[in-house]
Design goal:
26% strand; 7-stranded mixed beta sheet; 456 residues; 12 helices; 9-stranded mixed beta sheet; 23 strands; alpha/beta; globular
Amino acid sequence: MKEKTIFFCTECGNETPKWAGKCPACGAWNTIVERPSAPKGRSTKREEGRGGHPAPRVQRLSDVEGRDEIRFSTGMGELDRVLGGGAVTGSLVLVGGAPGIGKSTLMLQICGTLCASSKVLYVSGEESVGQLKLRAQRLKVTGDQLYILSETGLEDVLEAVRAESPDILIVDSIQTLYNPSLDTPPGSVGQVKDCTLALMDLAKHQGVTVFVIGHVNKEGNIAGPKVLEHMVDCVLYFEGDQHNTYRILRAAKNRFGATNEIGVFEMQNDGLYEVENPSRMLLSGRPEGASGTCVACVMEGARPVLAEIQALVAPSSFSAPRRTSNGFDFNRSAMLMAVLEKRGGFKLSTCDVYLNIIGGLTLDEPAADLAAILALASSYLDRSIDNDLAAIGEVGLTGELRAVNHLDQRLSEVRRLGFTKCVIPKRHSGKLVAPDGLTLIQANHIGEAIRAVLGK
């Protein structure tokens, strides 16, 4: 009897009944491959991954005993912040990032603290045990409870987990792990899905906290099927420029906490160091007396962060001027330029406009609108904004300034970093008390704000 086969896309994992040159789901070309519909040994290996866990039993929700989630510190406050207060016992965390960004360094560094109170197994499919030892010496990571294994076979990894019974398992990386019972090569969609599912069974049924490292593709997404991100409990992205020493860790998904927190690290020769005051880091090296720059205050989770917005407006000789935005939503920047031209009287339609956020931060909060407007106006008029001035406010399509949340907390952070003036919307909720030494410039419209700051 002929074995039944199905076709799937190696880029997105979409399954189709027949072969096609172009994937109907993601549009990629020449990515459809064939595989057996029911690979041999899949269910057997899955049961091994569960460690002989009995068949599930249906229960009433009211009969289930409630228990608080058990969190523990990873030894890095910035990582704990992004995870929502620490890692949760029995969770599956996926850490993604570009090659060389510092994912393996971060995971090995936290082992130094974790192995003091827990048994940690670090599995690497990319390095030998000798290479891991050298890297651990460079990072000054030691501990009798830290065990290392250089292996790529899923069965061998699960066997090592059963033999050692670790509290925490770190897999580096999921793209190198493979199940020999599948006919597809390591890193393929089927392999990544099957191996991740086995690790998920391990975390949920044996209470092992699992950290999995994953590489990202050229689009910036974690390599493998999108369903991989749905299977895990937390998805963390490690971002940054390899030519810059600063790295930003942000949560794209977190079942146990908020997803708008960020952690900031600095990469040095002997490892990653936490940056407890990211605002000071993002504002370091800010030019004095230059036009086209303004400071905004945005909320990253529960923490206010100050970021520098730079704008360059230059006359264009082309009929279609160029628009570029880095770290700021392109569509929102286009909207702000249209508002500035229509409501502010600035002829930006004849100019090339470049907008940039310093430090690799991505601003997606409307509270940064006013700072972007002031930076654009400053560059257009070639007049500098005072270095001790910040701006907070959302801009509407009619040019009005709208209130933002957590204004008291933002103003406290602005004053703490030495700013003496801040432009805010006149409309705000509740009674506002300005911190000592901070002068508030309140405006109803972008025209009022520009005149108050630039004198136009």
